[in-house]
């Protein structure tokens, strides 16, 4: 649970900015975006597999560049 305590002299825009930062740091924004629409389990598996494939490709690419020098 993300909470921001506001004093009498605090500005609202400052409090909103702090709230947004804490939401991002806690990972709730990503979770909210991910859960915004229903995703079938088969689609979730495909997306997870595709993400892993992208990560492997990126790792191989960076390893090849490291070995060149």
Give a summary of the structure in a few sentences.
By secondary structure, the chain is an all-alpha fold.
Please outline the helices and strands:
Elements: H1 12-26, H2 28-34, H3 41-68
Features:
single chain; mainly alpha; 72% helix; flat
Tell me what you see in this structure.
With 69 residues, the chain is mainly alpha-helical. It folds into 2 domains: 1-37; 38-69. It is 72% helix and 0% strand. It has helices at 12-26, 28-34, 41-68.
Which sequence of SSEs, written as H and E, runs from N to C? Answer: HHH
Sum up the overall morphology in one term: flat
Instruction: From the alpha carbons, calculate the radius of gyration and give it in angstroms.
Output: 20 Å
Helix content: over 70%
Q: Helix/strand/pairing class, anyone? A: mainly alpha
Spatial gap, N to C terminus: 47 Å
- Helix run count: 3
Number of domains: 2
Low-confidence stretches: none
Largest sheet: none
């Amino acid at each position: 649970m993300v909470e921001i305590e506001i004093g009498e002299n605090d500005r609202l825009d400052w409090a909103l900015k702090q709230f947004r930062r804490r939401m991002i740091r806690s990972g709730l924004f990503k979770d909210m975006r991910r859960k915004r629409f229903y995703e079938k389990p088969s689609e979730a598996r495909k997306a997870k597999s595709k993400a892993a494939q992208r990560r492997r490709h990126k790792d191989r690419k960076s390893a090849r560049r490291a070995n060149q020098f």
